[in-house]
Amino acid sequence: MTDSWVRRVLVEDGLQSTRIARRVSGLFPHCETMPSGGGAGEAAAADPPRGMDKETLTLMRFRGEFLKPCPGTGEGYICCGYQILNIGTNCPLDCAYCILQAYINQPSLRVFANLTEALPEVAERIDSDPSRIWRIGTGEFTDSLALDPVIGWHETLLPFFSSRPNAVLELKTKTDHVKALVESPHRDRIIVSWSLNSPWIASREEHRAPSLERRLKAASLCQREGFVVGFHFDPLFLHPGWREGYRRTVDLLDQYIRPEGVIWISMGAMRYMPSLKPIIRSRHRGSSVLRGEFVPGLDGKLRYFKPIRMELYGALREMLLSWNPDPGLYLCMERPEVWSASMGWSPGTGAGLSDFLDNRVRKVFSSL
Predict the structure, then answer these.
(1) Which class in CATH covers the domain with range 66-366?
(2) Cα–Cα dist 175/146, whole Å
(3) What band does 236 get if pLDDT is binned at 50, 70 and 90?
(4) Most-buried pick from 120, 185, 187, 253 (CB within 10 A)?
């Protein structure tokens, strides 16, 4: 599958000796060198249908902080205090609703080849606050596992985080690329999580992604091999038969997943920056994700009306609780009143939600 994604590899000059570049050059002997600090394929952005250039892999230097707080979505919405480990940007999958189409205004699959060399600085920061639980993920700006067979992120990230008692690493994916994970001896402090949706959305809007059943078979394998797993229903959509669709996905969870091995499940409704709308209409002309009435939120993003969001959350919450009475269920970027109406409680603040999720970490990993 990865061979069909990557057709061209560019390596920023000066990074050829990094672990990531050496691994990739072993798989793709005809790597091209680009100038240090140079861009790749910007001209492709002028052609919207191919503007993301998902067949070029660019190994480049990341010049910012590798570990940063999740950007969140603005005042008034409850953020969970997640930390992002920057491993790359863009994704070989091509979901019609993907916010990266507008948020990352650069084409090609960009991987930060100096990651391994920067991990000592990340370790120093984590170790400087041993009383804190650092919940860290790599799936904010790319899929955590889609390119792992090529890049081999697992080779350094799994042993690195398994040895840190006050941190957990969440690998968030829509793929079934778990072969390398289950062959690794490292399990502690690692969470493998999957983005899920209704079958209707997964089959029509999540292009290049494996089916829900393939994802959940991969999750089941990870569970059997001793990994903690999580799930994210984000974004949720109104669509024909949405209740029955999400019920079908929960039925698949019941078929493949042991409830007691789940650390958390998040829910979030479709929301997007206005600049994403013309991109979706250009790149995914048959998409239905923009159907419905959206209104601007406090953060400027367009969202379903509040009563619609509460209906979505409340319905899925009931389904999930019927399968697992203790799923660690939470909302992503919602207001306190939406929490109260659809969940029956509210953490009140970002600090309250952070405490809730930190306690999930303590509970699940202490039981292993």
Answers:
(1) alpha beta
(2) 6
(3) very high
(4) 253
